TrEMBL record:
This is Uncharacterized protein. It comes from Alexandrium catenella (Red tide dinoflagellate). The keyword Coiled coil applies. Residues 110-137 are annotated as: Disordered. The lineage of its organism: Eukaryota, Sar, Alveolata, Dinophyceae, Gonyaulacales. Residues 111-137 have a biased composition (Basic and acidic residues). Residues 144-189 form a coiled coil. Keywords: Coiled coil.
Length: 275
């Protein structure tokens, strides 16, 4: 069951690592960092499962060793009890045992010695296996300690890397904000310069337009002055013509008056002639 749990944890870790690797391969640097943290977390989970399983195996091995030690202790106690000489019954100290009983006892002793030797060998073999298992468990315990130290170091390194990553993110964010502020200031300065240049160009265009307008107005004023001069000359000519006409009219009036006087004189002369 523990082997199946370790295999399942290993398969799950492989799937998580593949998923993190695929997502980090096509993503941004932040996705790659997140994938690295995910892989580290998978490895830590896998080591934690392995450590739990190894501790369970060590506990089972220690329980078996304790059971074996109890069994060996019981056998030793039985052996010690068998080796203790049995007290003879009272009144039979001087009675010699029968020959068949002695032979049966010798045969039992030989068989018992053989069994005892086999048991001793089996016990030595078991003690050797127990010693090997104990040494293996000690080595596994040392490996567990080393793994724990490595896990602690990895956790510390992970925490340090995370802190460095957070600090780098903060620094990057601060630099990005500073760069954005500088860029905005530069854009504002460029916009101001552009506005000033455009305003200067507009002022120059206005000045040129004003100069053209002033030149056109000057030409118009010159034309108006010339027209006014022509009009004045024409007015003078008209005034002179009117004066001539008036003089002619006066001359004509004088001539008419003279003619009328002559006619009257002629009429008077005719009247005198008729009288």
């Amino acid at each position: 069951q523990r082997t199946h749990s370790l295999v399942g944890a290993s398969d799950e870790a492989v799937q998580r690592i593949l998923t993190a690797a695929i997502s980090g391969a096509v993503g941004s640097p932040q996705a790659a960092t997140q994938a690295e943290f995910e892989v580290r977390a998978c490895i830590e989970d896998l080591l934690r499962v392995y450590e739990h399983q190894l501790r369970g195996q060590c506990s089972d091995a220690l329980a078996q060793q304790l059971q074996h030690f109890k069994h060996v202790d019981g056998l030793r106690k039985k052996r010690a009890a068998l080796l203790v000489p049995q007290p003879r019954e009272i009144g039979k100290e001087n009675v010699a045992p029968p020959v068949q009983a002695l032979q049966a006892k010798d045969q039992i002793s030989v068989e018992w010695e053989k069994r005892h030797t086999d048991r001793e060998r089996s016990l030595q073999s078991r003690e050797q296996r127990v010693a090997d298992a104990s040494r293996t468990n000690e080595e596994r315990a040392q490996d567990l300690e080393v793994l724990e130290l490595r896990l602690k170091e990895q956790a510390q390194a992970h925490a340090q890397a995370l802190a460095k990553h957070e600090a780098a993110q903060k620094e990057f964010k601060a630099r990005q904000e500073t760069a954005e502020r500088e860029l905005r200031l530069q854009q504002q300065e460029e916009l101001k310069q552009k506005c000033l240049v455009e305003e200067g160009q507009a002022v120059s265009e206005r000045k040129r337009a004003l100069a053209v307008m002033e030149a056109s107005i000057g030409e118009r004023e010159q034309r108006l002055a010339a027209a006014e001069a022509g009009i004045s000359a024409r007015e003078h000519a008209v005034t002179a013509a009117e004066a001539g006409i008036a003089a002619r009219e006066q001359t004509a009036s004088a001539a008419e008056a003279s003619a009328a006087a002559r006619a009257q004189a002629a009429a008077a002369a005719e009247a005198r002639s008729a009288a």
